[in-house]
Write a structure and sequence with these properties.
alpha/beta, TIM Barrel, 8-stranded parallel β-sheet, binds 5'-deoxyadenosine, binds iron/sulfur cluster
């Protein structure tokens, strides 16, 4: 079990608490931390340390992004997938999934609706669907960019060749999300059957960054058999890679997968991981994920207070939305959908945040490139 004390209060004596606080403070100050100390933090932290960690994470988020929460419009445009990730409900071998894919026209229609609602970032997410070869994706990217001049486009379509990523970048795609899922080779191989490979996933991420995408990695919290040692690898990888975005959500079990019966990640585990990543990559765009909203009604709002600063709302056509069920019970209506933006707005205003509908690039992006 990861972060085994994270739901407990007062388990650490004053001496241990002081040591842990020092580690957290050093991380917030950008100091090099030995692996052993970071592991000690993971193995020992309880709610008391989490509260301190969040306090510092919030200060950092505030320094870069103030109270802004960047809004994204999510379009799940295909649920066909050639892969068989052991945790995922739309894996190829799940024959119970009713499969769909949208045409270019349908996708642009969704974007129009999103644009009218005020969104300026579109996230096109899909399974690894061979139908969407480079020609088709390039055509879609160009179509969107011709229609809307002041938007950012994010793709999340999995692993592709270096050349393919270049084609997508040259066509005008700005950002790319590819969660690394875990930086531990052992765990990666437990989560992904062959021929998926840890080395290829890492290579893809390096290539995306090299071409100039704002690149997002990320991982699931409490994925089956994950240990604190595995988590440690994630934090070290993230610190070195310095992604522009990092998606962190709980693992949520899906019964039509080989991982049926495994335990979901918890809200406190996710709070801890998000806050720690905020310290390691101070200017990162960190979403409050839908998976979190699925395990806890106020999950998204809670994690904004841990350092997250992005919310993605679903704008896929309603009739197919339920078919993009990567985990069981995935919420996609009400305040999860683009049309529910006013619901979200009042929820986040209540806790002192402001909705920001601008393009919302990572801070420092224009200065550096
Ligand atoms: N629980 C939580 N997250 C999941 N994902 C896929 N399946 C699950 C699950 N059962 C996440 C993966 C993937 C992203 C699109 O969704 O991290 O990268
Ligand atoms: Fe396909 Fe992505 Fe699900 Fe893996 S996680 S099976 S690549 S949709």
């Amino acid at each position: 079990m990861i972060l085994k004390n994270i739901d407990k209060v007062d388990v650490n004596d004053q001496n241990v608490h002081t040591q842990l606080k020092k580690i957290i403070k050093d991380l917030a100050d950008g100091k090099e931390i030995e692996k052993e100390k970071l592991l000690f933090l993971l193995k020992t932290s309880s709610v008391n340390e989490l509260v301190y960690l969040e306090e510092l994470a919030n200060e950092i988020r505030e320094k870069y992004y103030q109270k802004k929460v960047y809004m994204r419009c999510l379009i799940e445009f295909t649920n066909y997938c050639s892969k068989n990730c052991n945790y995922c409900g739309i894996r190829n071998k799940n024959l119970e999934v009713s499969r769909y894919r949208y045409s270019k026209e349908e996708i642009i229609e969704c974007c129009k609706e999103g644009y009218e609602l005020g969104f300026r970032t579109f996230v096109l997410q899909g399974g690894e669907d061979p139908y969407f070869n480079d020609d088709r994706l390039v055509d879609i990217i160009k179509g969107i960019k011709e229609e809307f001049h002041d938007v950012a486009l994010t793709l999340s379509v999995g692993e592709r060749s270096k050349e393919s990523y270049k084609n997508l970048y040259d066509a005008g795609c700005d950002r790319f999300l590819l969660r690394h899922e875990t930086a531990s080779k052992r765990l990666y191989e437990h989560l992904h059957p062959k021929p998926m490979s840890f080395e290829n996933r890492m290579e893809c991420l390096r290539n995306l960054k090299e071409w100039g995408f704002q690149t997002g990695c990320g991982f699931m919290v409490n994925s089956p058999s994950q240990t604190d040692e595995d988590l440690l690898e994630d934090f070290i990888f993230i610190q070195n890679f310095q992604p522009e975005m990092c998606g962190i959500g709980p693992y949520v079990c899906h019964s039509k997968t080989p991982f049926k019966g495994n335990e979901n990640g918890t809200i406190n585990q996710v709070r801890f991981c998000v806050a720690l990543v905020r310290l390691l990559v101070p200017n990162a765009l960190l979403p409050a994920t839908t998976a979190l909203a699925t395990i806890d009604n106020s999950g998204r709002e809670i994690v904004l207070k841990s350092g997250a600063n992005v919310i993605m709302l679903n704008l896929s056509p309603k009739d197919t939305r339920k078919d993009y069920e990567i985990y069981e019970g995935k919420v996609s209506f009400g305040d999860e959908e683009a049309h529910g933006k006013y619901l979200v707005e009042s929820k986040i205003n209540e806790i002192g945040f402001e909705m920001d509908m601008e393009i919302g690039n990572v801070k420092g992006w224009n200065d550096v490139y």
